[in-house]
Amino acid sequence: MPHADVITPNQFELGFLTETDPADLDSTLDSVEQARAMGPSTVLVTSVLRPDRPEGTIEMLAVQGDGAWIVQTPHLPLKANGSGDVTAALFTAHLLDTADAGVALGRTVSSVFDLLERTHESGRRELQVVQSQAQIANPRMQFAVEKVR
């Protein structure tokens, strides 16, 4: 991690990396700051499961500089091979394009949700990347990104 600019752990992995137990928003933000102290300037936390979130939802959190943004989507009941890799790649591409973690988060979540929804509807575990290329290239921006810090 000392050489990374961006890391994209899920909430469990963030806890493992920082030897913490991120559970709510404050403890997750504290864990992110511990990770950032190890080197990365930007952290995207995937699969954030806060106890106070509405049932049937999941969140992603991006932190860069002195800003932090969170976005909530419906939780889709599937395990798709490669979804973390796609999320990391899209977030990195959008971050390089915009230099804004909040915008990159919104674009990433929109594309990944559409990709996962199409994959779920297909009944397959393999990501339906080709079938979702229009949504990947032009995210619908259907989820509100909230600045939390």
CATH class: Alpha Beta
Oligomer: single chain
CATH architecture: 3-Layer(aba) Sandwich
Mean pLDDT: 96
How many runs of DSSP E, i.e. beta strands? Answer: 5
Helix content: 40-55%
Our count of helices gives 5
CATH superfamily: Ribokinase
Q: Let me know the largest β-sheet.
A: 5 strands, mixed
Alpha-beta content class: alpha+beta
Order of helices and strands: EHHEEEHHHE
Q: How many discrete domains? A: 1
Q: Ranges with pLDDT <50 over ≥5 residues?
A: none
Descriptive notes:
By secondary structure, the protein is of the alpha+beta class. It has one domain: UDP-N-acetylmuramoyl-L-alanine:D-glutamate ligase (3-Layer(aba) Sandwich), CATH 3.40.1190.20. It is 43% helix and 19% strand. The protein has 5 helices and 5 strands. A 5-stranded mixed sheet has the order 1-2-3-4-5, sandwiched between helices. Strand 2 and strand 3 form a beta hairpin. The longest helix has 22 residues. The chain is globular and about 40 Å long. The chain starts with 5 loop residues before the first strand and ends with a strand.
Provide keyphrases for this structure.
globular, alpha+beta, 149 residues, 5-stranded mixed beta sheet, 19% strand
In short:
Helix content is 43%, strand content 19%.
Blueprint of the fold:
Elements: E1 6-7, H1 11-18, H2 25-37, E2 42-48, E3 57-64, E4 67-74, H3 83-98, H4 101-122, H5 133-137, E5 145-147
Parallel strand pairs: 1-2
Antiparallel strand pairs: 2-3, 3-4, 4-5
